Amino acid sequence: MLAPTPQGVTPERRAVQFKLANGMEAVVIPDHRAPVVTHMVWYRVGAADGPSHRSGLAHFLEHLMFKSTEKIADGAFPKIVMELGGQLNAFTSQDVTVYHERIAREHLGEMMAMEADRMVNLRLTDEEVATERNVIIEERASRYDNSPNARLSEQMSAALYIAHPYRLPVIGWAHDIAQLSREDALAFYKRYYAPNNAILVVAGDVTPDEVRDLAVARYGKIPANPAVASRDRAKEPPHEVARRITLQDKRVANATLQRTYLTPSYATAEPGTAEALSVLMTIIGDGSTGRLYRRLVLEDKLAASAGAGYYGGGFDSGIIHMQAVALPHRDLGSLEAAVDAVLDEVRENGVSELELNRAKRSLRAAYTFESDEQERLAERYGRAQSVGRTIDEIEGWPAAISQVTTDDVKAAANTYLDMRRSVTGHLLPEITNGRSAQPRQVPAP
Amino acid sequence: MLAPTPQGVTPERRAVQFKLANGMEAVVIPDHRAPVVTHMVWYRVGAADGPSHRSGLAHFLEHLMFKSTEKIADGAFPKIVMELGGQLNAFTSQDVTVYHERIAREHLGEMMAMEADRMVNLRLTDEEVATERNVIIEERASRYDNSPNARLSEQMSAALYIAHPYRLPVIGWAHDIAQLSREDALAFYKRYYAPNNAILVVAGDVTPDEVRDLAVARYGKIPANPAVASRDRAKEPPHEVARRITLQDKRVANATLQRTYLTPSYATAEPGTAEALSVLMTIIGDGSTGRLYRRLVLEDKLAASAGAGYYGGGFDSGIIHMQAVALPHRDLGSLEAAVDAVLDEVRENGVSELELNRAKRSLRAAYTFESDEQERLAERYGRAQSVGRTIDEIEGWPAAISQVTTDDVKAAANTYLDMRRSVTGHLLPEITNGRSAQPRQVPAP
């Protein structure tokens, strides 16, 4: 049996980081179980960095990055990776845009050469832009406009943030997507795609020295872009009002309740606060052992499913989210009362040592499982580094979770499960158009 | 007895407009009842044109415009106007920033010289900027933060607009005001304050030729600024969800209900639509003859006051607003049900010819009374011209109102009194902090 890691002691570092002369940062996470590598480039730019009247621009550019450069023809990038036996993908979030490949170790240099090439040599024709714009318009229609739950989530974000650009959807509003131009994309590309705004993450069967040599040769020759400036996003004013939205959609089979609360993130919170929120929301919302599931699904038989969680990865803020799907003939008012009773109970009486320890074990176990999947491992470092967290903070997370106390959890509940920070969303099947299908205030008993 | 003006016939024009070679527009409205003039400069820039992470910038600059130029010392501008027996003021809205003086006719040339001077020669010291920033911080604290109703209104706007900058308060969020700098103000000034972004409005005891000669001499020598670009603000996505907010404030004496709906404005609506909205909301909400007042105050005895209106002056959109203050021991749920019953009735059965004609008479009378007040008369032209409306549209408004039919009113009610366009706000006295003091959904009967 292994001795437990003493609390508060940071374990020996696994990842190695360095910086190129042009400002590009790099993290290497050795993983020698198989002769493969995960190669990622994280740009410190996401949907929330675009101009607010051009929502969707960061995601649009992500699509266009698979168009041509002088060396690589339109559509050839994925073909080359796949012919080498690799896999590739890309994604855009509010804070980052990420390109990654998983490939045999001997091709890492070639992947770097290709990513370095499209970091600065992207060419775009009006036709390529028009084609891709239509692809995204279709993507939006199928993934968002045709999904009542996605529509509600989009409106929940729009209602949660008063000033901050996190309120805008990453994919963009349909009317904004339709207006995105080649000039918009190139201006954004030239301002934000540069080695001094990028983080190279390589996990896999390589040594830090090997990665450094390859990176210097491929990425090192790109000059820094002095136009890259630090983020200057709109900040939220104090949240003073509880907000509610109701979406009616005839395609809804089961009425659904969502709730979100604005919180700090790991990048913005005082030490220990985000960790307490992680533990708190594991106890309240994680799977079938969470309090919400036990109360709404098992005990009260109101909901088909119920869960909650805390996302603490944001650059400017974090979020608590909850969701419950009503059983037929159960109304959302009853669901919401049951949710509030669960939250009231935690605020008033806190959580037990048993729950605390179970939640900590569960979180540490998730960290361990994640460490076994190379791509998720690489993503962990990229995500945290791109919002300014250090290797020590990333690797010290299990130890920091271990330090959370029941008092910390109760304090976090009382500070952050505050309706003034919240949006409550009701998704209902019936359509009543102009009529007020809103909940009425019930007079106090 | 006078014959009524035939419907649809535009009366003879009262105002005369012309344009200077540098792009500055001018409107002159002769009014020879007294030897005074109202002199206004309308800049086509307002709070909604500033960068979204610098809310309050347009209003901040309005304050700073009373600081020094080379010719006029800090604070001397108001003193000069007052020593000449004049009055002066300035205001900032979402769409415009306006400076105006009312003064004896012989001083008009001097007023123009002073306005022309500060259009381009403003000097700002860091000390002046710091002083004025503190003035505005105090202004915000006293007018907004200390007023529960103003706080609710501010949050109603934040909740109504998803993407458009009308969601931000004209005065700015406190944390943004605290960051506004001399550089922010000067950059905004240099981009937007220019003759080709301004409208001169002069009403009073002058002829158009006199005004033209004075304007050419004073404003005509300022070169046009090619940096002035047309507005490119974020546009609203379709509004799909009804929104609700609850603000609790212990200083609230009587619970208050507010509701707003997003609508077109006179500048954006199809012909006749904004006029129908004006008539509709006069019937529903105007004073003690409006349907809301009759139902909530007189019949049901739920409210101490109740009213509603339509503001159609915006560049990008209009708004319907309603407010009702509960009598003691009356809850907002009952008030809201009564409001919805009034709106349902109009949507289903429309309005009577009697109500229609009374509302038209009332609107035309308001236009006539406004024409008798020189400052409001001048403001009418400035406001409409600054959002792109023509003299014919301004002066043809009473005739356009006359053409509204009961069918138009019913159609407007059905299209625009749609909960998906709305925000409902509850202002409540009690404080329950973290607890959910939200209305519960009442199961359908």
What does this structure look like?
The structure is a homodimer of 445-residue chains. By secondary structure, chain A is α+β, with helices and mostly antiparallel strands. The first copy, chain A, has 2 domains: 16-218, Cytochrome Bc1 Complex, Chain A, domain 1 (2-Layer Sandwich); 243-428, 2-Layer Sandwich (Cytochrome Bc1 Complex, Chain A, domain 1), CATH 3.30.830. Chain A is built from 16 helices and 11 strands. In chain A, strand 1 (16-19) and strand 2 (25-30) form a beta hairpin. The longest helix of chain A is centred in the N-terminal third of the chain and has 20 residues, at 126-145. Chains A and B meet through helix 5, helix 6, strand 7, helix 11 and strand 11 of A and helix 5, helix 6, strand 7, helix 11 and strand 11 of B. Strand 7 (241-248) of chain A pairs antiparallel with strand 7 (241-248) of chain B, so a sheet runs across the interface.
